[in-house]
Amino acid sequence: MLNIQISPLAAETFKSFGDVIALRDIPDKIINQGLCGRHHNLARMDFGLNGIAGISLFDAKQRSLPYKLDMMERHPEGSQAFLPMSQNPFLVIVAPDNDGKPGTPMAFKTAPGEGVNYHINTWHGVLTPLFRPGLFAVIDRIGSSQNLEEYWFKTPITISGDAS
Question: What is the H or E stretch that residue 102 is in?
Answer without folding.
Answer: strand 101-102
